[in-house]
Write a structure and sequence with these properties.
Strand order of the largest sheet: 1-10-9-4-3-2-5
Helix content: 10-25%
CATH class of the largest domain: Alpha Beta
Oligomer: single chain
Structural class: alpha+beta
Number of domains: 2
Strand content: 15-25%
Shape: globular
Number of strands: 17
Length: about 425
């Protein structure tokens, strides 16, 4: 759907009458039965973000990616022909996990001419072909050219590596991403290679955490201190509203204005921010990225952050100060999930720049802990089933759309199993 602005007297939700304005159920976040269907209908059919091309800097590079909750590990490799491929991380001989670091559940990366199974020594090229069978003469009617690794559908977009576990994806990656997300292809992600990573196991459904980043209605109550020590921010009735919401197929995005703290009087800054010239919205001294494309689609004058939410479980947050963050939510049960957060900066060229990046990472972690601190409470409250449904306001339109989309994919999968017809809806 196209871009739009909210009239002074209007409503974001009014642009999407199919979503309705009534109360919604969060049964999809507490039902074990729904989780089992969701895993098959969504996560085994949608394109999933596995990594970045910078993790494959040269021919012969590889990395593995665990897909929590799917009991699946994939190998992503760049063979000598330069092509990026993905394979199930499973040896063709006896099904052993082929590559790991530390324990079989540990991810690994490196550079190699061949991938070697530590159990019986079978070897594979970076293109997945079997190249060596130990004591080959001991086998019966062995055809080594039929014993390659099992391929996984793999494609790249803007340097992001995606995989799809379906036998045959319903859409190509670019068709799936659509025009709103696709417009980011010209953004200079490739320049931001300094990375800070966080991982946490959470006691809540994956959608509960994702919902926290789909609206800024919660900011005044939950993130009061991050808004800064200004009189208006300390007012318990302070109102904060995002500048723009947009929906395109199963994907969503929200734009918010920046706090621009570095332009405030000194008394409205925290000492650490003034010292490091950095904070919750990143380093004050932004790199020169030239003209960038795809961001701030509404033309917000005081643009701060674009949060592009790529269905099902990837969020890309782009900051006006020239850095970006990715979130990934991996469901492991109906009430647990793994959260991964990564911050990306243009590499620092001085100690001051590095300090500004690290301070931004520290404040990001503080923000994340505040959001994560509500998760158990939300999950426990929903599982108490005191209410069958809940009201959502106009700023929570993306929450409404997200849950409707997940339900559509599950309903389509159930229909297809029952009748052999139907497909996931792409709202």
């Amino acid at each position: 759907m196209g871009r739009f602005r909210k009239p002074a007297e209007g409503s974001w939700t009014a642009h999407h009458p199919g979503l309705g304005t009534g109360r919604i159920s969060f049964e999809d976040s507490i039902s074990p039965e729904f989780h089992a269907l969701e895993r098959e209908a969504v996560f085994r059919r949608a394109w999933l973000h596995a990594g970045r091309v910078e993790q494959l800097p040269r021919d012969g590079s590889y990395f593995t990616k665990e897909l929590p909750g799917l009991r699946t590990s994939v190998i992503v490799s760049r063979a000598t022909d330069g092509r990026i491929r993905a394979f199930h991380n499973v040896c063709r001989h006896r099904g052993n996990r082929l590559l790991w670091e530390g324990t079989p559940r540990g991810e690994s990366c490196g550079n190699a001419r061949q991938l070697v199974c530590r159990y019986h020594g079978w070897r594979y090229g970076l293109d997945g072909a079997c190249t060596y069978v130990h004591q080959e003469r001991e086998f019966f009617d062995l055809r080594i050219d039929e014993l390659g690794l099992a391929p996984v559908h793999c494609d790249t977009w803007a340097g992001f590596v995606f995989v799809n576990l379906a036998r045959e994806p319903r859409q190509s990656l670019r068709e799936f991403l659509g025009p709103m997300v696709g417009a980011l292809e010209g953004y200079p992600f490739d320049r931001m290679t300094e990375r800070y990573s966080f991982r946490a196991e959470n006691g809540s459904n994956w959608k509960v955490f994702s919902d926290a980043f789909q609206e800024y209605y919660h900011v005044p109550a939950l993130h009061t201190h991050q808004l800064g020590p200004t009189p208006e921010a300390q007012n318990p009735e302070y109102e904060f509203e995002a500048a723009h919401y947009q929906i395109d197929g199963p994907h969503r995005m929200v734009t918010t204005s920046g706090t621009h703290k570095h332009r405030w009087p000194a008394e409205h800054l925290y000492p650490a921010e003034a010292l490091t010239r950095s904070g919750t919205t990143g380093p004050w001294d932004a790199p020169d990225l030239g003209e960038v494309r795809g961001v701030n689609p509404s033309g917000t004058a005081r643009w701060g952050i674009d949060n592009f939410q790529v269905f099902p479980n990837l969020e890309i947050l782009i900051y006006e100060r020239g850095w970006y963050v990715t979130y990934r939510y991996w469901p492991t049960s109906h009430d647990t999930h793994v959260f991964e957060g990564d911050l990306f900066f243009v590499p620092a060229t001085s100690a001051r720049e590095r300090l500004a990046h690290e301070y931004a990472a520290v404040t990001f972690k503080e923000y994340g802990l505040q959001d994560a601190g509500t998760l158990d409470g939300t999950q426990m409250g929903l599982e108490q089933r005191a209410f069958d449904d809940f009201p959502l306001n106009d700023q929570e339109i993306l929450v409404r759309h997200f849950h409707a989309t997940v339900r559509d994919w599950v309903d389509g999968y159930v229909r297809e199993r029952a009748t052999g017809e139907g497909a996931p809806c792409t709202r």
